[in-house]
Every structure is written in C-alpha cells, then in structure tokens.
Amino acid sequence: MFTSEVQSLGIKEIRAVIASIRNGYGDDFTDFNLGVLSRRVAMAMNRLSMRDLDVLCQTLERGDRIFYKRLLAELTPPTTELLRDPSFWLHLREEIIPQLLPQNDRLRILQAAYGTGEELYSLLITLEELKLRARVEIWCSYLSEDTLVQVKNCAMPLRRREIDEANFERIQAANSYSHYVTETPEAMIFNPDWLNDVHFFRLAPEYKLGADPKFHLILCRNQFLYFNLQLGMRNMQVLFDKLLTRGVLVLGTKESLDSYQNGSTFTVLNQEESIYRKRE
After folding, report:
1. Secondary structure class of 260 (helix, strand, coil)
2. Tens-digit pLDDT profile for residues 10-39
3. Tally of CA atoms within 13 A in the half-sphere of 48 that contains its CB
4. How far apart are CA 270 and CA 272, in angstroms?
5. Could you give the CA distance from residue 261 to residue 52 in angstroms, rounded to a whole number?
6. How far is CA 180 from CA 18, 34, 86, 146, in A?
7. 199, 216, 181: which is closest to 97 by C-alpha?
8. What distance separates the 2 farthest-apart alpha carbons in the chain?
C-alpha cells in the first residue's frame, strides 16, 4: 500500500500490475523492461492520484476501459520537442527519402513507436519541406486512445518553443517554425490536411501486424529501450517482415540493431543515427 508519492515499484509489485492489465484487457507487458515500466507506472499512479497498489490492481482487473485509457496515456512517454535529434531529420530529408524515391512512385512509411504525436508531425514537416506529402502514405501506431484523440486533433501541448525553433534552424528548413505551426496560449496547431493518407492503428506491446501492406521506410526510434531482449528480438522480426527489400529501418540513437539480429539481414547506412537497409 502507498500513502505518499510513489517513487518506483518493486519487481513483485510491477508483475502484479502486469498480470492485472493482462487479465483485464489482454495487453501483455511481461517482456517490457521492468525497471523502466515500474518508474512509468509509479509516475502514472501519482498523476492519477492513485497511491494504493491494491486499488490499482483491482481497478485494472475490473476492466475499467476509461481508466485504462488514461493509464496508457500516462505510460506513453511524451516527446518534448519537434524534430528531436535534428541531425537525423536532416539526414532523412537530404539522403534517405531521396534515395527511396527514384525506385517508387509512392512511398509507404510506418511510424511504429509509441508517442504523443511529435514524431509524426516532425515527419509531416519533413515531407512538406520536400513537397512530397501527396506521394506518401503513412501508417502511425498508438497505444492509448486518449493520445490518439490528441494527435488527430492536430494539437500538441506548447512546451519549449525555443527548442523547436532551434531545431528548425539546425535542419536548415526552408520555412520557419511559424510557417508550419499556429500557436494558442496552450497548444501548437498543425494543418489538419496533413493527416490525409495517415492511417492510425493500435499496436500492442507484443507487435502483431497483418501481411499487407509492406513499407519502404519504418521509423521506430527509441522504442526498443522499453523492451527486454526477448521481446525486442520478436518485435524486430515483425518489423523485418513488414519491410520491403532495400527498405530502410530507423531506430533511436541509443539503440543498436546488433542486439536483436545477427547482422546478416541489414546493411548499416548510418551508425550514429541507427539507420539500416534491408538486404536483398
């Protein structure tokens, strides 16, 4: 039982939460990184004013969908800036997408990492910079329906404008931050037309994707940090199967493909940015 602010959960406690989620909703977090997950759940409990672990587990066991959506929204780590890691977005714009285009009239891109929308809108800005939005279909995953509502409303919380503007400068954008973003006192608003040809789908912790379509580019940055090795290997195989031959996979800068496959299936395109091409 917790009566003050929750700092973290022990292994036994986080496993009890995982079991309650699995029993109540079918999502299986068993092979998540338990240290990371315990901290995220503790943070969620504090924000939801639920300090008693037994009450949390009982609520989850009852299958309260509204509460679970709120919990998942809290578990989804926010991306606190647009164009995070500007060197990656610059490389994507100048090298990766131009290499993919000559071989394909239209590109299919999978945004496979959970997030709060900034990664998706960073991709859309990049495509607008290249004037290629009409030639690209995007599939974007989500974990929480509450987060999905925010993303589809084309509104992101207004956090640190100076960092966003600096990132625009670092990628040498043709247009300024204010060209793409309309600000209100609390949010930054994007063009809703950008979401044409964006297909949203729920991606469970254990990845399951249908046979079609397959993708020219898969972005899954900073997601595998949340998996243990076994889940990482299984989910990597799913992404590999969804990637077209000579398609490109992008992980986070702190993630390495070497941990999840034997190196025979991908060619390194950029080690620093964790960008890989699927071999023929």
Report:
1. coil
2. 999 999 999 999 999 999 999 999 999 999
3. 23
4. 6
5. 41
6. 40, 38, 16, 24
7. 216
8. 60
